[in-house]
Every structure is written in structure tokens, then in C-alpha cells.
Amino acid sequence: MSRLFGPFRQMGVVVRDIDAAMRHWSEVCGIGPWFYADKLALSSFTYRGERHDDIHVSAALANSGDVQIELIQQRCDRPSMYRDFLAAGHEGTQHWSRWPTDYDEIYRRALATGYTVGQEGQSPRGPFVYFWNEGHPGTVIEMAEATPERMSIFDQVRAAAIAWDGSDPIRRDWPKP
């Protein structure tokens, strides 16, 4: 558990082909079902302090126990930490995430201890931030506020994984809050 952020709840995996990644995770790893959104709804997106609200990011969510796995494929060339990760020759775990209810307090504490904001945004599910402080690939820290909307979606993904029998591994309908 992180002394600053608390326990991690999600591993974020940046991929070049999200469809192939969902198939691999479900067929080879036995993890699913995957809930897929072709264009994740964002009302604002900032990278290194500059707005890029028209970013197109596809995402898929599934759980393995209490840990959520998020697959991310950026489908445009807008500046982002995802784009930078792939451009550096990486593919795979790019971040881990925490979903606190005291989001603003932890956000301020992170900045006070030397973290800086790499990218952040607002969605219908609430705010999120990715902090710079990467020691090596896969150690970026994302924090997303545990809003009722976000937690409702995440609870549905977790519940589907518990009862999953391997059928219907890729679901194109994102859970409704």
C-alpha cells in the first residue's frame, strides 16, 4: 500500500491494439468480461497544463478479484502520457490507480510532496489526474475520485467478473451509473 495514495485498485495497461489485448486477457489469462468504450467520454483533458479536449481514447475494463484492469488505446495523435509511453517504445502497464473519496486532500498532499501533474481531466464520472514521478515504465500514479457514478460502474464490472463463465467476453455496452 502506498503511504501517500493508499491501496491500488487498478492497473492501467496502454496498448496499440485494444481488441487484440481484450482477446488475449480473456482467452489466455481467463480474465473478463471486458466492458469496452470506443471513445471514453471526457468533458476536459489537459496534458502538461495545455488543454486537448478532443482526445480520442478507447478503454476496456475487467476485474481479477478486487483489482481492476484497464486497457487503453489512444486513437489520435493528441499529446498525452499514453502517446509518450508508446513513443518511448513501451507497451503494457503504464500506471496504477487509486480511487479516494478525499480526492482533493490527497491531490494537494501529492503536489506538496513533489509530484507534478502530467495529465488530468474531467468526465461524467468525475475528475482524474495522472502524476509525474515515474521511476521506470509502469509507475505513473493515477487518481480518480470515488464519485457515486464511477463507483457504480466499477462495482458492475467487478460483479460481472465474479459470476463470469467465459461467455460474451467483450461487451460493447459500458455500464450505466
Would you kindly provide a brief summary of this structure?
Helix content is 24%, strand content 34%. With 177 residues, it is α+β, with helices and mostly antiparallel strands. It has a single domain (10-164), classed as Roll (2,3-Dihydroxybiphenyl 1,2-Dioxygenase, domain 1), CATH 3.10.180.10.
Name the CATH class.
Alpha Beta
* Overall pLDDT metric: 94
**Largest beta sheet: what is the strand line-up?**
4-3-8-9-10-7-1-6-5-2-11
**Main beta-sheet strand count, sense and barrel state:** 11 strands, mixed
Tally of DSSP helical segments: 4
Query: How large a portion of the residues is in β-strands, by DSSP E?
Result: 25-35%
Distance between the termini: 28 Å
Tally of separate domains = 1
Total beta-strand segments: 11
CATH architecture assignment: Roll
Which spans have pLDDT < 50 for at least 5 consecutive residues?
none
| SSE pattern | EHEEEEEHEHEEEHE
